[in-house]
Amino acid sequence: MPSSTGTERPMFRRRPFAVLAGILLVGNATLFATAGDFGALAVPAAVLASGPVFLAWYRPVAAWAVMAVAGPLITGAGTALAGPMTPVPWYVNLQFAQVPVMYVLALSATRRVTAIAGVVTIAAGAATVLLLDVAGPVTVLTGVGSWTLVLLAAVLVGDARRARRLDTLRAAEEVGRTRILEERARIARELHDVVAHHMSVIAVRTASAPYRVEGGVSEPAAREFAAVNAAARASLRDMRLLLGALRGTDGPVRTAPQPGLSDLHELVESVRRAGVPVRFSVTGEPSLSPVESLTVYRITQEALSNVVRHAPAADTTVQVLADADGVAVRVDNVAPASTAAAVEARGPDGRAGPGLGLIGMRERVAALGGELIAGATEEGGYTVRARLPKGDDA
Questions:
Q1: How many of the other CB atoms lie within 10 Å of CB of 201?
Q2: Is the distance from CB of 153 to CB of 159 less than 8 angstroms?
Q3: Would you say residue 196 has pLDDT above 90?
Q4: Phi (first) and psi of residue 379, to 5 degrees
Q5: What pLDDT does 192 receive?
Q6: Residue 328 pLDDT
Q7: Rounded distance, CA 70 to CA 73, Å?
């Protein structure tokens, strides 16, 4: 997540950084103790020189700050101890820590932050060497020049990878927004088809009511029926216009009836033919409205599709439970046979990709005032549970 300094935590594994920091710690401690004559300060100096590598995986700006301070301090300590080797910031043993830190900083921070950090690092190192007079001007010039090129290479590689990652994230966000809008449009079309049925019934019954009532109806009642009929027809006309806008002109108009609870057996059979062993049961006597029946079907369909994609051949159970308070849908699957590929493909919601199927299910359930829970189980499987309250017309 971005912070107030314009940085974000890099997505790296900790172990490579810990291993590299450990190797540098041992190497620097040995070098400072033997060639640098640091004595008892060899280990603290080595920690100061190597620690930023370990810190970089989690706090790149803090790691850079420690690294920028470490160079001048170690150079000053070496000069004060008057050892045979005074370590300057561009020595290879220090660059082994500086390069990964600058790379991670460029990958995690904005270009402005990275540029300022690079300039400060080089300026502080060069100024320290000149002030302490541990190297001649020519040595400083060549050392700073080669040091700058090495750090610049690390920064450029990190910045290029950051740019690619941002482009990928932007593209993924755009695809996600598009798919969410498509899913909402599809839900709206399905709701339209169901509501249009009820409105058609209202229009027909109000139009025929004066003729069906024995003995006829009064003139005011006839006008009221006519007004209700006109309102129902106007609503139907408006919904058809809206449906046309939602469908667009890119494809044929779909006129097939919407699936529902009675179609679940066929859905389960198709999944079984795909190689997934599914146990299906209906408990109670569900009395569902068309919208609720469609929602139950879509939830089961999406959950089974996820099983086919991400847990092939996993034992799966589909249960529809009806009681006086409503209907519950539960789809559970055990861990897939090949867990390595499934774990790598899972996202934050436990499924591969951005979890747009779960978004669609949650929106459907929320539209009916229900609740949905979806997530991985402790045994490595996955569960989807939805609860729809009993509707007024169910």
A1: 11
A2: no
A3: no
A4: -85, 0
A5: 64
A6: 92
A7: 5
Q: Determine what percent of the chain is predicted with pLDDT higher than 70.
A: 79
The two tokens of residue 56 are 């970089």
Pairing of strands 382-389, 326-333: antiparallel
Q: Is pTM beyond 0.70 here?
A: no
**Of the candidate ranges 75-79, 82-86, 220-224, the one whose mean pLDDT is the lowest:** 82-86
Bridge partners, residue 83, by sequence = none
